[in-house]
Amino acid sequence: MTEYTIMDSSPSFHRRAPDDPSDSPENMVVPDHALPHISFRTPSHGTGTSGAGSSTGSMAGENPTTLHPAMHLSTITPPQPVEPHEMMTPDPNARYIHGDQVHQDCIPKENMVFATEEEGYAFYMQYARAAGFGSKKHKNKAMSRVYACSRQGSSEFYKEAEKRKRGKMSKRIGCMASVKLKLRGKEWFYERVELEHNHTLNPDPCEVKHMRSHKNKHPVMMDYVDGLQHSGVSPNATVNVLTELHGDYGHMLMNARDLENRRAANLRKEQVDDVKKLVTFFNECRAQNPKFYSDIDYDSEGVVKNIFWSHASCQANYAEFKDVVTFDTTYRSNFYRMPLGMFVGSNHHLQNVIFGFALVGDETEETFEWVFRTFQRCMEGKDPICILTDQDQAMANAIRRVFLETIHRLCRWHMLNKHTVELNKLYYLHKGLEEKLLTAVNHPLTPLEFENAWKEMVTEHGLQNDPTLRGLYEHRASWIAAYFKGIFCGTMTSTQRSESTNRMVKRYHVDKSTPLHMFARRMYQMLQRRKDDEGLETVYSQDPPDTKTNYHLEHQLGRIYTRAVFKKYQDAYFAATSFRTKNCSQHLSIPI
Description:
20 helices, 592 residues
């Protein structure tokens, strides 16, 4: 092995001392390789003149013997010296071998015997990991095997005129380190062993883990990682779990990029025959329960356009709680970016329940009509009593065509949010307008009382001809709660239940990379969780209610209502005690 002696040729320097020695920290000599802490005074600066001044000049009006704050003492630590041999260009003819960290029993030697080929390969892999280099199967013949350093050979892939997508070159530099494993009778032995490399080795575990041949790809560990990714565990959380299993991040023989590549490979595998896998899942659901309903709409070229499905439990919930349904669409919930629409209602525990799912290709009137008619067939022609949507005209036209007896109610939040900019200007110009407007909109008044309150409000502020308020008033019968007193809406005045369900779906179950069949499976898992929450609330509702009064009515309602509904009653009863009784004239007439 070639040896090199590195001579210390680093230059030495001395700072010349001034002719007038003093106690100033500026007058010092820096010895070779010394690391002193140097204190010095910042030079003084004169003020108001351009002529040369004394180094001890002072600011105007100051004591000349007092140092200005700018003349502070600073401490400087010089940079650490670099050893000369670290600055030298590596010798291309140098040879490198494993260090003392490799035990003698783990070093390959000629004529070492192994019972099987796998044992000989595993032994060389163990040595390569300890020494700090990657390995590969170089040659595979009938009677022999050659295992070599991963930097063996050369690469012609990168050419001068070729445009590289990544700034990454080949690591092959012609390293000759290798072993030849040969079959002799029924055993294998090392016929030739070459341990010298023409490159430096990297025995640090944090460096070894980035070599492809030493990444831990044990089937059990890979199945565990696939399970975490399949369950929607984030990449960062997956790394944390594997770190806990290995005891330390440095011991984990995979990195974050490996996990991302694994997830991307699994996604590509899942996206193959996506529609076929979706149909297979639908058939599995139908085999478990014949009440499962699904329908797929194809275009003229046989491409999937719209998808609808509803589980048997969804249809059972609809039969019980079809009084009011909200419908809204959301985006970025699947790989194909098909908008997701869900029919959502409320059960007797005031929990969200889902009646059906729809993935649509677009949001046109024709598409919404197909979705609503499919939902109608699924529910055996039983239309909802009331449906809540946003102010989408295509959706409104489709509802008018399909649900002939259903009352269409617009979302209150969308109605006001649409005019946020205009309303904020009015609130700024007319003090007290916001409080009066929200009181008229939110207070449970009769239609006549609402119209009187609205008329009084616009008259007081002189806004009879304001286009924003006129537009809200013209559509009052579609979104003001006072006009829906005759039907049960389950305290719903907006599409908030649909939007909260959409948000929960995208946050905990699916994302923009989810294939269709995985999307449908995760929606089924979500339904099972919702069913579990309903069961938990049913058990809690069997406990004796916590009554606040001795009225028999409260005790009776506590036995009839569920826990959530009874809590609503108690809140309303408590709020009713806030009213004050006032003596009125005997001739006061109250309109009915």
